[in-house]
Amino acid sequence: MSPPPLPPDLASLLVIAPNWVGDVVMATPVLRALREHRPAARIVSAVRPGIGPLLRGAGWADELIDLDPRGALGPLRAARRIRQTGARAVLLLPNSFRSGLTARLARCPVRVGYDRDGRGRLLTHACPVPAATEPTPTVDYYAHLGAFALGLADIPKIPALFVTGEEADAAAAALDGLDDPIALLTPGASKPAKRWPPERFAAVADTLSEDGFACVVSGSPGEASVTGAVVAAARTPITDLTGALDLGVLKAVVRRARVLITNDTGPRHLAAALGTPAVTLFGPTDHRWTTLPEASERCLLAEPFLPAEAVADRNPRLCAITRIPVRDVVDAARRLHAEKGSPR
Fold first, then answer.
1. Which residue among 112, 147, 251, 293 is the one 20 to 30 A from 169 at the CA level?
2. Is 229 within 8 Å of 243 (Cβ atoms)?
3. pTM score, two decimals?
4. pLDDT by residue (tens digit) across 199-233?
5. What domains, with CATH codes, occur in the chain?
6. 118-127 own/partner pairs: CB under 8 Å, 24+ apart
C-alpha cells in the first residue's frame, strides 16, 4: 500500500485555511486530526488576515500566520511567505485555482488538495471530489480531504473552538452590567437575501426582553447599518457591540450567551463549536451545505417542505427569508433555552 500524501514522519506542514469564518470552523476537525495523527510535525496554519483569533487556544498549530493571495501579485507574495516557514508540505482547504497556484509557486515538495477548478496539475496529490446528488455538508467535505491526506478511512467531524482567559475577560468587560440570561442577535450576512429583516430581529428582542433576557446585537463594522436598524426598531434597550469585538472576543461573547438568534453567518458556526444554543434562519441558501454535527440548534427554513431533490439556492422566491415569522423564532428560542439554557 502506498504511503499517504502526508506521511507519518512528516517534519513540517502548512495548512491553508478556508477564507470564510464559518468555513474555518467547519474545517477544525481537519486541524485537530492533523495534530493528533502527526504529533511530531511542525504545523503552521495560514489564515486570512483577521481570522487568526478564531483559532487561538486550540493548540493544533505551532504557528498562526496571515496569508492573503488576493491581487495580481498576491500568489507570489503568499508563496514567498510560505517558503519562509520552511514547510515541506501544504494542505489546501480552499478550492480555488489561486490557492493551488500559490502552493506551486512556494515550491513545496508535497501539495495536497481537491482536484477541481483546473488546478489538478499544480498538486502532487489531487483528491477526487466526492460524487453527490444532493448538497454535501461542508464539514464532511473537508473531513474527506483530511482523511485522504492522512491515509485514514475517516476522521471525527465535530467542530470545536476554544476561549482563552484573556478573551473571556474582554467579553466580560464588553458585557459589563448585563445580567444573564443573554440573547445575542447577529442580523448581518454576506448577502442581502440571507438577512432576515431588522425589524423582526427587534420584535424578537422585545419579546425575549419581556422573558427576562438581556439582548445584545453584534456584527462587523460593515454591518453597522443593519445592526443599527435593529436597535432603532426595538422598544427594549439593546447593547450594540457592532465593530467592537475581534473574533477571539466574539467567541467568548457567543459562549456567554444563553441563546443566539442568527442568520446563516459566521457566529452560527461559533455557537455550534462552543455549545451555545442557536436559532438559525435560512432563506435561499440550502441548510444541507452547512449541517453542523451535534449542534444545539434549531434551523428555521423559509420553505421547510422543499423536496429533497430541490436546492434552496435555486429557488430564491419560494425560499425568501421573509417567509419566516417572528413567532416561530421566539418559540424556537424559548424551547432551546428551556432545554439547553442553564449556565455552562
1. 293
2. no
3. 0.95
4. 999 999 999 999 999 999 999 999 999 999 999 99
5. 12-150 (3.40.50.2000), 165-340 (3.40.50.2000)
6. 122/97, 123/92, 124/5, 125/5, 125/149
